[in-house]
Each structure stands twice: as structure tokens, then as C-alpha cells.
Amino acid sequence: MKSLSIRRRRNLGILLLLSIVVIVIDRLLSVSLYPVAFVSGWLLFSLVALLAAYNIRKKLPFLPLGSSSTWLQFHIYGGLLSGVVFVVHIAGRVPNGGFEVVLSALFLGVFFSGVIGLLLSRWIPPRLTTRARDSQEVLFERIPIFVRRIRDEVEAMVLECGSQAESTVVPAFYASRLKSFFERPRNFWSHVLHLQRPRLKLLREIQSQEGYLSEVEKSVMGDMVERVKQKDDLDYQYALQALLKYWLFVHIPLTSGLLVFVVFHLVLVYSFAGGIR
Amino acid sequence: MNRSDVAWVASCPLARVLSFCVDLPTCPPVHLFIPPADETFALMDSPQKGLKRPQRWDIPFCDDMDDADVERVLAAEPFSKLDGSKFRGKVTLEGIIKNDARLMRCQSGQIIVRNGDWGNSAFFILSGAVRVELGTVSDAGVSSEPIDVGRRDVQRKSLFQVVAQLWNRHPEPEYRGGGDAAAGVASVSQGSGEETQVYLADVNAVLDKHLTARMEAPHFFGEIAALGRTPRTATVFAEGEVELLEVRWQGLRDVMKRDEALKQQIDQAFRERALLSFLRSNRLFEHLDDEQLSTICDTAIFETFGEYDSAQPFKDMAQQGVDSGFEGEPLVAREGGYPDGLILIRSGLARLSHKHHHGHRTVGYLSPGHTYGFDEIRASAGQSSHAELKNSLRAIGFLSVVVIPTHLVEELLLTKPSAVPVPAAKPGPADPRDHADHTDHTDHASDAFLEFLVDERFVQGTAAMVIDLDRCTRCDDCVRACAATHDNNPRFIRHGPVHDHFMIATACMHCSDPVCMIDCPTGAIHSDQLEGQVVINEATCIGCSSCANKCPYNAIRMVEVRDERGGFLREASSKPLVQATKCDLCVDQLGGPSCQSACPHDALFRVDLNQFETIESLVS
User: Fold this and answer.
1) Residues B214 and B179 in one domain
2) Which of B418, B469, B500, B606 has the fewest CB atoms within 10 Å, i.e. the most exposed one?
3) Can you give the C-alpha Rg of chain B in angstroms?
């Protein structure tokens, strides 16, 4: 862990240094009336192309192209540097014109979705691990299987309870309150925001039924509470693991869009830049 | 993405290109292995039926052994003395010689086995003589520096072959070419004799420089590595023309099972030579001359704990895990007892524990090369009262130790204190006892992790897959990379026991003592000759499942193999043909284990848990 913190400090130092270099060069070129937007534009394009190349590295794990970890470090700090270069490139002004607005929006979308993804990838894993200590670590693809298994168990319990006990409290409560809970992942945002309220509310509702239950039904309800907790733990794992996976659905399509618009941008710039260069 | 989508992507070239260009992060790799749940998946269409289930000797050790060769070998010692009537049923003596052995004719100076290489066979000298290198002669005396010529590089894929994996991957899972698993991918016999031979340029110069021993017919050598699942302990080269019979260890084991006299002979030689070479390789005994070493050999006691030829006790213990405490771990030496000898760990692992209130705390473990009791013997030397043993020593699974009596240690090792280099015999790993001042030991996190690893027997692993869950984003890039480098078939499961924030994933750990090899009838699962990784030869795997059943960590999976259309290959009785698969540590890839290099977050490590210092660095 010590080496990771050293690496972080080193990379931040390099990022800071490069940012200063970019800004200084931009200022110097501006003073000499050099068309600095071309320099910063090509630098930005190169950075974006290299950052996008990480996806190709991921697709070719058998090629000796360096570790993915090194690529990610470049991706993170290169991405942050691209933000600085972007500001330099647009000279700090707000883009005008439809094409420029879309292009800028795409870049900012990619940039900020990347930053959010980075924060999520640092923030969520320890939370998953901590919660998994109380329940268990599960593979994302297996969660629906476990959920179905729990639902089947609960339904069997309810059916058996209905046939054994003379009252219909448990089946009725299951049908009105628990059936939807066990059907699919629930409380996505509550889990993401680490709110325990829906879980406690449901448990309290179950507890409130106790006064109407026979001994047999109490026993069944006790088992059901355990299943509710298990299902809630699975929902927690589902919500956080899904978030970790699905943020890429924003980042990568935006990147693809950005690359297309960047190419158009280059064509347009060189089409109308005859007098400048 | 459901299964039909996956199949479509897998089968349609355009879709494969699209799926490459457009990243679909949640799509599992084409054949991402999900541990089987309750569902039963529909069988693929048009399964091939009526194939012959591969048998042990379908692919012999060498194709060139004919009946005349077999007869000639059976007429030579020690085979002529074997009682053929003891070999009944399918495994006949003739069958063993024909299928598990090969004849080798070596020229003068040809290196037959090399110190440090991994081997799975023993050699019987039929005619001529060989020289066994025992050490290097110099002005300073005899050292154990081995002959090191002509060592081959590890065979890895070329850059083109690596790139070609991009389009050569088969869309169907567990595809085996040719429609016959037994004649599968690399249908060559193991001992085809086409290896590059290495010769010593000047045999006389080697004889001048190195201390060697001469061996001639009907002696044998190579049994230490073959039976001990360890690297070769000496280099052997031909002196003049020599004819050898190389027997792979499965055959040797069957012969030993049926002939007690040969078993005893091999066992005896195994013990004597193992001890001598073991002592020679140990820094503690470096300063001793031949006479002193032979004194130790004569006096030393071999002790073994657990069953060497069976993984069952080990597996049982691993499965019992933490709950069992130290039950099933035979006590080798008790804390507080008198150190009646210096204990050297020869093979296996031993737990060091220290009494802590009402229980015992694990403070470390000893792996081959480590010593136990030296400090106490040294502290007692010349004193009227003896020093008590600081820790208890218990065997984890099979353990083989050499005990050198205290009086001999005092006489040979402590009379010249300056000659004794370090208390821990093996260089490299830190001696766990150095960390075991147990009364004020307060690093509970480290203690608990150590206890977990020892209780679950993960300390056997030389390349265990450890995942730091606090960093792992569950992105499955490791699984995808593994699949990409193994023809779209992932070879591990990103799931396993968790301690604190470390998960030991279900991947082959390449154990220091790979018990999975014990019952393999064909030698398909073996240690790579150069680097020692445990790998499976698909061409000779007959799908008997013995390795998968033996593996205490369930790291070997039996898979139904398929033809090019995805149909299961079936034998005449309609049972699907299966083969063993596991992590091969990307032994043939250019970039090392792809799982580790594919992890973007530095969360996945392949670590040698055999080394105590690895655990310390992990925890710290």
C-alpha cells in the first residue's frame, strides 16, 4: 500500500508539472502570435486517442503491451491532463455554435464520467467487502440465481404455513408486502447511498405482524426475516456491483461519439483554416 | 445478453468484429464460467457419439518401443528379477515397459538430467556408465555449484503466435480439434525423443572441475525428482556410450506397488541420495567435508508424517479447515520440550505454534530447507541446563523431516561457530521464528491472516491468486484475459474463501507439493521441466478425474469437450468425454499470467505463499 501512495504522489506531481508546462507553452506561443489552438488541438487529439487505446489494450490481454494497471494510471492522469489541455484549447471561453457545444459537451461528458468512474472504483469496493464480511461475496452474474433460490424457499415456506396454520396472516402479508420485494432487485438508490431505511422499515412491518401469529407462524416469520436480510444483502451487492459495471455504459459510448466528432472537427478546422496555416 | 446472443456473437464473424470494436462492459466473455447452479442447460445439437474414451496407454511415452525392445529390457536387471505374476489385470509389466518407458542411447558427454530441472521420470542404466555430478572442486574445497550448460529457454509462443490468438480462438467452448480428445491438440507422445540434446564439450575438464560419482548398470537414478515431485537434485551425464531406460513415474509407481524388493531398493536409494544431496544444498552444512557429511547421513533419522502417496488426509484437513484446530496435524516437536535434534524440513510444510493462554497461536510455518531447534541447541551448548523448545511443530499434510541428533550438531556445527552462516538453513525466506517473540506479539491482523492461510492449507501455493477486495472493482477483466489466452475458456473462478479483504480465488496455486499428480495414470498433469508450473497435457489427459478429486482446493475442473460445431464429444455409451482443465499460469504466453497483468487496479497478485515473507508484505 505504501508503494501505491508513493505512486499516487509521483503521478500527481508529474501531472502538475505537465499542466504547468502546457500552460506556460500556451502563453509563450500566444505572445508570439502563433496559432496556438492548433498545437493544443493536436495535443488534445493525441491524448484522447491514447486514452481511447486503453480499450484496445483490454481486448488484447495476450499481447505484451504492458500491464493494465500501468495503462490505467496513464488513463487516469492522462485524462486529467486532457482536461487542462481542453481548457487551454478553448481558451477558457464558453463554446458557441451547435457543433462546438456538442463537441465540448461530449468531451466534458467523457471527462466527468471518467472522474465519477474513478471515484466509484475507489469508493465502492471497500463497501462491498465490508458488507460481504457479514453476508458473503457473490458474483454479480449469480445474484439472480440466489435471489430466485431465496424466493422459491420463501414461497415454499408460505405455502406450507398456509396449509398448516388455520390463519392466512402469513400468506396475506407475503402477497401484499413481500412478494414484490423478493421478485427482483429492490431499493437500488438506497443501497447506493448506503441508506438502511427500506430494510428497517420492512423488518419493522414484519415485526408488527407478530401479535397476530400463532407459534408455528412465528417460526415461519422468523425464517422469513432471515431471508429478507439475505435478499437485502444480495440487493446491496447487486446495486453496487451494477453501478461499478454500468457507469462504463456512459463513459464508453460518449467516448465513441467524441472520437467521431473530433474527426469531423479536424476536417472542418482544416477545411476553413486555409488562411491561417 | 443471453445465451443465444452469446452464441450469435460467437458464431458470426461480423458480430465478433463489432463486439471487439464496441466495448460491452457487462457482457461476460464468450464462455465466462459461472459455477453451476440449479439450472440444467440444454445440450448442444448434434453431439458426436460413439467415440472411444481415451485410455491410459493410448498415447505411449514413446512410439518407438517394440516387442523386441520390451523383451530385451525384461531380460536385463532389475526387471529380470521381477515376478511377472504379480502384474495382473490391465497393468502388465510388459505394458508398463512398452507404454511408460522409452529407450535412450546417449553419447559421451550428453547431459541426461540437469540439476534444477523438473522431472517426472527415473532412469535405469542398461549398459554403459553415467557420471553424477556431486559438486565443484576448487582450491577452497568442494562446493555445490551445479553444471550449468545448455539450459534451454522456456518455450513460449512467438509474437506471431500470440497475435494469431486474436483470430484463432474457437467460438465453441472447450473445443478439441480432430473430434477425438485423446488425439487432441498436440498429439505427440511425451517421450518422442525429439528434444534438443545437450553435450558437455570437454568431459575431462568437467571431471577435473567437478566432483562426480560413477554409476553403471544395473543402477538407476532420477528417482528423487520422479517420486518426490521435486526438481532434479544433480546433473547426470553419459560417460562413453550408454543405454538407458527412462520410466515415467506412473510406471515406476506401478512397478513399486507390485514388487516389494524393488520398492525397498528404490526407497533406500531415494532416502540415501536425497539426504546427501539435501545436506549438500543446505548452507548450514556447507563447511562440512565428505566424511562429516557421511557421518551425518549415517546417524540422521528420517521421519515422515502423513501419507506420501495419498492426498486424502491433506484434502480432509483442508476441507475441515479452521474448525479442526490442530486436529489431524501430527505433533513433530512440543513446545517446552528438550531439543533432542536439529530438525530439517525436507518436503511438505509444518506449522509453528506457540501456547497462548488456553490455546495455541500460529506464529509461522516452515517449508523445505528450513530448520527447527537450532537456536535452542546453540543456546544449550556448553550449559548445564538445556534450553526449551520455543514453539511446537506440527505437520500440515505430508511432512518429511530429517533429524540430526543434538550431540552431532554440537560436535559438527557448533564447534566452529564462525563456520555456521545463519541459523535458518534456507537462504531467502525469513525465518518465521524471527517474528515470533510471542509474548509481546501484537500484530493481530497479521496473526489472523497467517492462521487463515495455514488452516486452509493455502501456504502450499507457490502462485496463489490473491485478490485484494478493497481494490477489486469486480470488473472481471482478469477472467476475460484468462479466457482470451486460453481459447475463450477461463481457467479459474473469481470466487473463493475470504479473509478480511483478501480473497484466495479458485485458481491452481501450483503447489509446492502437487498432490493432484499422485494418481494421474498417464502423467498428463506434470511439472513443467524448466519452471515447475503444474500443467496438463491435453493430448494425454484421459479424463479420469483423479487430479480434480485430489486437488484440495477444487482448482481443477473437469469439462465436457466439444467438436467444432459445439456438440459434446461422446463415447459409445453416450457419456460425454471430459478432460481436466486448470490454470497453467500462462506458461506459454509472452507476458506472464494474463490475469495479473489484466488487473487495472493492482488488486490481483500471483504470490508464493510458501514464503513467509510474502504474507508479511501482503499484510503490511
Assistant:
1) no
2) B418
3) 26
ipTM for the complex?
0.88
Distance from the B32 Cα atom to the nearest Cα atom in chain A, whole angstroms: 10
How many domains does chain B divide into? Answer: 3
Cis check: omega of the bond before A171, within 30 degrees of 0: no
d(CA B256, CA B100): 14
Q: How confident is the model at residue B409 (pLDDT cuts 50, 70, 90)?
A: confident
Which residues in A lie closer than 8 A to residue B32 (C-beta atoms)? 141
The answer for B 473-512 residues in CB contact with A (under 8 A) is 473-475, 477, 480-481, 484-485, 494-495, 498, 500-501, 503
If asked whether residues B102 and B241 sit together in one domain, one would say: yes
pLDDT at B331 over 60: yes
Is the CB of B601 less than 8 angstroms away from the CB of A137?
no
Give the pLDDT confidence of B461-475 residue by residue, as tens digits.
889 999 999 999 999
Q: Write down the pLDDT at residue B422.
A: 45
Strand partners for B122: B247
**Residue-level pLDDT at B152:** 56
What residues make up the domain containing B406? 302-442
Residue ranges of chain A with pLDDT lower than 70?
Answer: 1-2, 133-135, 274-277
Query: Can you read off the three cell numbers belonging to residue A80?
Result: 486529467
Q: Where is B398: in which H helix or E strand?
A: strand B392-405
Distance from CA of B6 to the nearest CA of A (A): 14
User: Within this chain, do residues B265 and B326 fall inside the same structural domain, yes or no?
Assistant: no
Q: Is residue B423 assigned to a domain?
A: yes
pLDDT of residue B542: 85
User: Which of B398, B420, B442 corresponds to the end of one domain?
Assistant: B442
Which of B37, B596, B597 has the CB atom closest to A142's CB atom? B37
| Residue at B619 is within a domain | yes
Establish if A212 touches chain B: CB-CB under 8 angstroms.
no
Residue in B with minimal Cα distance to A4 = B602
Separation of alpha carbons B356 and A207, rounded Å: 44
Q: How many CB atoms lie within 10 A of CB A238?
A: 22
Same domain (yes/no): B107, B130: yes
Q: Mark whether B356 and B408 lie in a shared domain.
A: yes
Contact in structure between B145 and B131 (CB atoms under 8 Å): no
At B92-121, the pLDDT tens digits run: 888 888 888 888 888 888 888 877 777 778
- B295 found inside a domain: no
* pLDDT of res. B154: 62
CB of A250 within 8 Å of a chain B CB? The answer is no
Interchain proximity B470–A129, CB inside 8 Å: yes
Residue B434 banded pLDDT, cuts 50, 70, 90 = very low
Q: What residues of A are in contact with residue B601 (Cβ under 8 Å)?
A: 69, 72, 121
pLDDT at B190: 45
- Residue B536 to residue A71: CA distance in whole angstroms: 32
Kindly determine whether residue B597 and residue A72, on different chains, have CB atoms separated by under 8 Å.
no
Q: Of B410, B442, B474, which one is at a domain's C-terminal end?
A: B442
B523 and B386 in a single domain? The answer is: no
- Tell me if chain A has a CB within 8 Å of the CB of B327: no
B43-75 pLDDT per residue, tens: 334 455 566 777 777 778 888 888 888 888 888
Q: What is the CATH number of the domain that holds B276?
A: 2.60.120.10
A124 touches chain B (CB under 8 A): yes
Mean pLDDT in chain B? 75
The distance of A48 to chain B (nearest Cα, Å) reads 16
Q: Does B597 contact A124 at a Cβ distance shorter than 8 Å? A: no
Return the axis-axis angle of helices A248-271 and A215-246, rounded to nearest 10°.
20
Which residues have C-beta within 8 Å of that of residue B541, sequence separation ≥ 6?
B54, B181, B522, B524, B525, B579, B580
Cα→Cα distances B104→A242, B80, B213, Å = 60, 19, 21
| Chain B contact for A192 (CB, 8 A cutoff) | no
Q: In this structure, are B420 and B533 located in the same domain?
A: no
- Sort out which chain B residues have CB atoms less than 8 A from A131's CB and list them: none
Q: What is the CATH number for B546?
A: 3.30.70.20
Is B25 within the bounds of a domain? Answer: no
> So what's the pLDDT on residue B161?
82
If asked whether residues B579 and B615 sit together in one domain, one would say yes
